[in-house]
Amino acid sequence: MAGDGRVVLVTGVSRDLGRKAARAIASEPDVARVIGVDVVPPRGDMGDVSFVRADIRNPVIAKVIAKEDVDTVVHMSVISTPGSAGGRNTMKELNVIGTMQLLAACQKAPGLRHLVVKSTTTVYGASNRDPAMFTEDMEPRRAPRAGYAKDVAEIEGYVRGLARRRPDLRVTLLRAANVIGPHVSSPITSYFRLPVLPTVLGFDARLQFLHQEDLLSVLRHSVVRDVHGTFNVAGDGILMLSQAARRLQRPTVPMPGFAVGGLGSFLRSARVADFSPEQLSFLTYGRGVDTTRMREVLGFEPRYTTAEAFADFGSRLPVTGGRSEKVLSALARQLPDPDARPRPETASDPAAVTAPGGARRG
Q1: For residue 9, what are the β-bridge partners?
Q2: How do strand 50-53 and strand 72-75 relate by DSSP bridges?
Q3: For strand 72-75 and strand 239-240, is the pairing parallel, antiparallel, or unpaired?
Q4: Whole-prediction pTM
Q5: How far apart are CA 166 and CA 156, in angstroms?
Q6: Taking the CB of residue 102, how many other CB atoms lie within 10 A of it?
Q7: Cα separation of the two ends of the chain
Q8: For 56-92, how does the pLDDT look when each residue is reduced to its tens digit (9 = 90+)?
């Protein structure tokens, strides 16, 4: 490797995507060294990546950046599910406090030239007031009040603050659509792995996906290109939830929104799938993002469309049906009676099954 190549630090390498991202970046000819950091060592092969045990919530991360002469930081250490972190409080601490400490270290590192942050389109939320396609300049129609989306909104705010304080630093913020692939474990993949899919009655959510390989490619691309800014990253096209279920040959059970939420709480407590309120809103309304800036400014074109990414994910899943559908239907009958709940148009739940004015959205 050339001595003047980039020295890249990647956070969150104990998780599969972080480890694979570090390996992908290390394969770039313009990269001299890659240092992966996390609180525990990764399970898989790191290849040419050097591992340093470090907690980004601790100011010691600044010493790692200085000692290794890091000029590029790739932040992958943002967790989307409380279960993987050991609880919501720990998740928030890792996401928000960890990012604050990392950005403080970046601000103090005079040799740092580039920061790449893997964010998510979840920051836009999902509601009945959403535009057909979110552009990078748009705000969510309903500000997130809790969970992963709130963490991401705070993290992006801190990243923009650093960009203002260090105008010499190139900051690339990648808002990735739901990442999907045969081996990806996430709230949305755990949902589609269910033998039967509970859906919200009267709604058909719009879905966009980013294949895992395209996520790794856009991270590599962003590290070696001198481009800064915020970019939506997703495969071309949109799938409706009903189409996705048919392509997986998964039976669906339509339920009122509150019933899906109740079932989701049961599945979450059983650690079968993660059903947060934001996940329920997403399965109700879905989300679409505009990727013009990704192609024209960042200069990146995903290899997989949304449909192709989903097809690759689904190719490894067994077909289900029959008895499983009966079991889920029986469970649904045990949930509270819809007639005992407030009328949807008066309910305070933003994921109520009826849109304002009584018009169903579908």
Answers
A1: 35, 73
A2: unpaired
A3: unpaired
A4: 0.84
A5: 15
A6: 26
A7: 55
A8: 988 899 999 999 999 999 999 777 665 554 566 777 7
